[in-house]
Every structure is written in C-alpha cells, then in structure tokens.
Amino acid sequence: MKLSALVTKTAKESSKADVSRNAQLLIRAGFVDQLMAGVYSYLPLGLKVLSNIERIVREEMEVLGAQEILMPALQPREIWDQTERWDKVDVLFKLKGAGDRDLALGPTHEEVVTPLMGRFIQSYRDLPKAVYQIQTKFRNEPRAKSGLLRGREFRMKDMYSFHTDQADLDQFYELAIEAYKNVYRRCGLGDLTLVTYASGGVFSKYSHEFQTITPYGEDIVYRLPDTDIAINKEIIEDKEALAEIIPNYKDGDEKSLEEMKAIEVGNIFKLGSRFTDAFGINYADAEGQQGKIVMGCYGIGPSRVMGTIAEVLSDDKGLVWPDEVAPYHVHLVSLCRDEADISKCNEIYDTLQKMGISVLYDDRSGIQAGAKLGDADLIGLPRRVVVSSRTLAENSVEFKARYDDMAVITPIETFYSGGCTR
Ligand code: ATP
Ligand code: MG
Predict the structure, then answer these.
(1) Pocket test for ligand 1, best of 61, 264, 303 (most atoms within 8 A of CB)
(2) To which H or E segment does residue 186 belong?
C-alpha cells in the first residue's frame, strides 16, 4: 500500500474528546475514528489490525473444535423474558420495532444460542458441541471514556459449549484456558496477561478472567508471585477460596500478593444448566433418561484486545504492533529525491511484495524526512526500512525494528536473503 494513496492521514494533535491513551494514539495514527463516546469507525489500518486479531481468535477456537456461526444482533424481548434478564441486564439496549414490538440489541447471546442448539441436540450422541461467533455487540455502558477498551458498540468473540455433565465441561474449560493463552501470546500480550480467579456465580465456584497488567487498567488483581495466576478484587476477601488457590495457604498470606492494575481482555464462565433449564432443553442418555445439558461460555473482545495492545505496548513515539497483528510488516520510507533513486526504491517495494511481505510504502513527495520517520514511529509497524540516495550509493537500506533504538545499514541483497528482518 502506498501512503500517497491511503485514505487516512496522521494527525499531530490528539483528539480532546477521547482522553484515553489507546484512543489518542489510534486516532492520531489514523486507525480509528470516534463517532461518539464508545462508538468507533475502523479505518483501513485499524480494520487490518482488528481482522488479524479476529483471525488469531478464530484459529484458536477452531483448534478446540468449535464451529463458527453468526447470530442476529436484533433480538425479541420474549427470549430475554424467558431467562428473566430483560430488566436485569442494566446495559441492555432496548428499542421498539415495527408494531411497537420490544426488541433488544444483543450484549451477549445465551438467549439466542441455547434454544438454537436445543433444536439439534437430542441425545448424548449429539454432545459435546461448541459454537462461536465474532460479532458486533451492543452495551449501553454508563462510562465509555476508555477508547476501544469500553465500547457501546464493540466486537466480541463469544463461544458456547454444551455438555452431558460437569466433568466433560471441566475438561473443555481447561482446554479453553490454553486456547485463550495462545490468543494473548500471539497478540503480543502473553507475558502481561494473567489467568485470574473471579467469583463464579451460582453454578461454579470460580470464573476466570484474563487480565492484562497495565497502570492504565480499570481492574485490580492480586498476582501470585512468579506465576501467571492472579485473584481478582472481589474474591480476595474469601478465605476459603484463598486456601484453595494459594499453595500451602496460611492466614494472611494474601498480603504478600502483588496488587496490580489490569484490563480484562477475556472472561470464561461455567453456566451449568441456568440457560438450558430456562428454555427447557435436555438430552436423552444411553438409557433414554432425560439429563440436564450443562453449558460454558467464553468471551474475548477483539476490539478491546486491540485497544489494550495500543495502550500497553506503545511508547512515547507511538504504537508498537506485534508481528501477527500488525497491519503491514514493513514500513518502507523513501527519502529519495531524484528520479533514478525513486525508481530504485519503487523496485524494492515491488520486490518485497513479490516476496509476499506486506509493505506500507511512504512514497509521498514533498514531506520532510523527520515527518516521515515520525509517522513511521506513530503507525508502529514492526520493521522500518529507509531508502535514501546515501543508502543507495552503497547499495544498501537502513533497517530498524520498531522496538529497537538502533538502525543498521544492510546491503539490499542481505536484507532480502535474511527474510527482510536484518
Ligand atoms: P467488564 O467487566 O469489563 O465490563 P464483562 O465482564 O461484562 O466486561 P463479558 O460479558 O464477560 O465482559 O464479555 C466478554 C469480553 O468482551 C470481555 O472480557 C471483554 O474483553 C469484552 N468486552 C466486554 N464489554 C466490553 C465493552 N464495553 N467494550 C469492549 N469490549 C468489551
Ligand atoms: Mg468482567
């Protein structure tokens, strides 16, 4: 992609409307645009990042054997009455449809997926099953001042699993934890993301949140030293739970846990038969007896993950995208002025593309070198390659990794043969 053709431009000024760090950076760099609090457009660079995160999530859910579906955002009141959640979910967007019919915009999809799967699950032979979707969700959040971290319209992957019994659910749930860890690792958040015990509601003792540590986080978690495990703020009061979670627990041990701020990037729950009971859905076991179907639900917000990466991995110069989520892999900056050099730089662009490397090519004329390099830092692709009359005189390019301070001059051929890393 040539920067001269890209529809967006970077901005020097950060928007005053949205004060969160992730929104400021993403708006300045032209990845997203704010329509109103908690509601964003994804622009070409931003949509690539979001799609990359969703691709990673999709791949890891497929490993679990879950099958992708797409359910409606627009939902009738009746299904929400059936689970008694029409008046209980405070963030539910309610609206009137034709004929004055009460409708909701889906904040989550247990009410849709449970009767849907009930139509296909009759006996134990039909279980276990898991389905997921990646979809736009709506929540009327009272505060939406954290950029992509808390949207009123946002992206969610929600997966639902169906089992004959608790043991089968437990087994799938453990595999889901591993799949989630893979997602965060591939999104560059692996070292910072803690599997966090949270209270589980009626049907299981605990649920698990995936919490990414950052001073900008809204949540507080307590980390077990030298592990990727933490306990969230509500559960830290529960001595019985502490005794189960902390090895060799003695009264007061929780004081040695490290208190940290974090962003919840995922949340998984064992739902038991809360929803299958509400919709009267059972299965027949091998003897033909009716059994309860137990469910798990597993959420990740790809747009919140994108905001978290922007928030946590950026530096004072701008965004820093990990390889697998970056919109392009190489930011090729031309500082060439005369025709011969410009055409050499165009050749490098073509060659990289032929090698299957995705390139954002700053081919703009009449822009100062400093501004071009500043834009490269702000946009934050993993690799920057600068080509100028000076480097071309030596048949070389200047290479710098985004997270590195040092640039190196590399012969063009060496650069190509090294897979364009060095
Ligand atoms: P929170 O505690 O942050 O309000 P939640 O516990 O209500 O979130 P879930 O219903 O479990 O969230 O949703 C699953 C995932 O969807 C969350 O872990 C988060 O990654 C994402 N998510 C939830 N609400 C939002 C939102 N308003 N904007 C962006 N992502 C969200
Ligand atoms: Mg939560």
Answers:
(1) 264
(2) helix 166-186
